[in-house]
Amino acid sequence: MARIKPQALLQQSKKKKVPRSISIPTIALYSVVTVVLVFFLFATYRHWSQRPIMQTDEGTSNFQVEGDFPDSKKPDVPRYAIFNTSKGLITAELYKEGSPEIVDEFIDACQKGHFKGMLFQRVVKHFVIQGGNSENHDVIEDWTSREKHYNQLENRLKHEAFMLGTSNTKHDKEEFDIFITTAPIPDLNAKLNVFGRVIKGEDIVQEIEEVDTDEHYRPKSRIGIIDVTLKQKI
């Protein structure tokens, strides 16, 4: 077999065609196609990835609507109590949010007629009037024993007049008593559970406050509650 000389190989390699280079317009076209393809894939991925979240939000919204629906059927809780007394009407707003358990007990006692015919058995001027059948008078005795010191108290938060409360000692529903303050009282929560405030009939409270009493602060004439009416609106 004849050997090919190096010079002949060199000449043959020179005769081979050099591959064409890729033109700039072709590169630009490929780049645009690639960008469009990537954008399309990203948009598709984003759409399907957010779909479960949208479904979850819709499910939550439906659940909240269903949960709120029964509340519209619940009976309205009374917000006001109107005391019909032998001196006139006293309207009190009930603090359901601040004292829910006490308000519930009070409403239950009203519905059972507990306050019908109840007398105001203690009347202390510039302090409180008390109505009830309880014989526990610790609240009254404690306040009256400190009366001479009240003007010497430092300036501090005091409960306002015409607050509605009951004694914070444990008692049966048959012994649910009523206190209405007639002046700002320091440390009111130490003795009373406040569950409302008189918003109308303050003059009636003051008229009861001015009745004559004996040395034990018991009214000399019979003054009491005829009945109590509960209302949602006034």
From TrEMBL:
Report the top EC class in one word. isomerase
Check the record and name the CDD domains matching this protein. Answer: cyclophilin (cd00317)
Q: Which residues form the PPIase cyclophilin-type domain?
A: 77-230
The answer to whether keyword Membrane applies is yes
EC number(s) per entry: 5.2.1.8
Quickly give the catalysed reaction.
[protein]-peptidylproline (omega=180) = [protein]-peptidylproline (omega=0)
Keywords, in A-Z order:
Isomerase, Membrane, Rotamase, Transmembrane, Transmembrane helix
What are the boundaries of the signal sequence? none
One example GO MF annotation: peptidyl-prolyl cis-trans isomerase activity
Known Pfam families for this protein? Pro_isomerase (PF00160)
Q: Where does the chain cross the membrane?
A: 21-45
Q: Which InterPro entries match?
A: Cyclophilin-like_dom_sf, Cyclophilin-type_PPIase_dom
Q: Which family does it belong to?
A: Belongs to the cyclophilin-type PPIase family.
| PANTHER family in UniProt | PEPTIDYL-PROLYL CIS-TRANS ISOMERASE CYP21-4 (PTHR47269:SF1)
Name the job this protein performs: PPIases accelerate the folding of proteins. It catalyzes the cis-trans isomerization of proline imidic peptide bonds in oligopeptides.
Q: What is this protein called?
A: Peptidyl-prolyl cis-trans isomerase
